Structures are given as structure tokens and as C-alpha cells.
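All the exercises in this workshop are built on plain-text protein records. Sequence and backbone structure share a record, each on its own labelled line. The question running through the whole workshop is how a given chain folds. The record below serves as our worked example for the rest of this section.
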Amino acid sequence: MSIEENFVSHLMELRDRLIRSMAAFIVVFLVLMVYPGAGHIFDFLSEPIQLALPHGTKMIATGVTTPFMVPVKLTAMVAFVLSLPVTLYQMWAFIAPGLYQHEKRLALPIVFSSTILFLLGIAFCQYIVFGRVFAFINEFAPSSITPAPDIEAYMSFVLSMFMAFGLTFEVPIVVVVLVYTGVITVEKLVEIRGYVIVTAFILAAIFTPPDVMSQLFLAVPICLLYELGVLVAKLVGRRKQDLLEKA
């Protein structure tokens, strides 16, 4: 097979895998629109702020199409997250033929663990962070006003926070991959721990609301997950060395 034919075949395979990923997303999205429905999904994800608002207060929608579009967009985000394992598997299947055997043994666990960690980050944000952050913010609201958040602004906030915490929980994966590929050593990771802690708080200040609670809830997990990544990287590094010696 010529280089051109080989390139075309790879493009066709990539197209097919992208189509499968998109099909998985569409199927999950349509199922969620039917059951439990976009409205119920929005109600579930907005429960933390609803509990923090004064009794009898509801969120508002200022746009004409906002009551319809916001729940649909949020449902699309949920569908993307739920179909993420299929997307990651298609990515792995595409690059797997070009990997060495020991790299293949690492790739699949990374795909699985990165999905689990991303979902854990979102769950941590939904069940732990939001309730405490919204209660903390509302405690500082002047008694002369009645908080009534707009649902579009709330959706934007939720998506940005979900993304921030989902990516934060991927820190151990990044650390392990960097060590396994030889980009950095475990000793160097331990050496730069102080810089990582400072960077974690800077990122928390950028990607979270300007309150101490939100920043701590993001910065502290980054630091802990970094330490977890260093620990796992040590174990993976030893395993890699043993395999190379046996080979």
C-alpha cells in the first residue's frame, strides 16, 4: 500500500470512529430528552442552588426561548458526559495499532480511569461543592434583596464548574503519563511540589467564583490528586522497569 493510500485509509477510519462517537452522543441525548426529560434534568442539577435560596424563591428566565433552550443545552452536556466512554474508546481504538505492547497495556486503563475520574469530579462538584458554595454566597446577600438567579447564567456557571472539576480530577492521569513517557521524573515532581500548590490556588482563583470556599474546594483536590498521581507514577515506573528488564 502506498503512502497516499495508507493516509486515505487512516482518514476513513478516523471518520468512521468520529461518526460512531457522534452517534453514541445523539442516541444518549434523544433517550434523555424522552426520559427523564430535559426539565427534570435541569431540576436535578439546579437542586443545590434551589435549596440555598430563601424559602419560596425560584430561579428566573429572562429570555423568550430560555426556558426551553437552557434545559436542552444542559441535557446535551449530560449526554456528552455519559457518551464519553464510547468517545474515549474510539480514540483508543484509532491509535492502538501504532502503540507498542506495553503502551497498549497502559492505554486502556488510562481511558477507563480518566472517564471515572472526570465523572467523579463532576459528582464532587454537584454533591459537595455547590451546596456549600451557594449557602456561603447567600449568607452574604443583603437583607434588602431577594436572590433570584437567571437560569442561563446558572447554566453557564454550572458548565464551567463541571469542566473545571472534571479536568482537575484528571491530574493523576496527566502525572502518570508524563512520568511513563519520560517527560519528567518522579523525583522532579516531588521537587516542584511547592510550585504546583501555588499554581493550584492561582487556577482556583481564575476558574471559580471570587469566594474562599469555591477556591479551596478546587485548589485542595488539585494538590491531593497531584500527590496521588505521584504515588501511582512511582508504582507504574517500577512496573515499566520490570517489564523492560524482562524483555
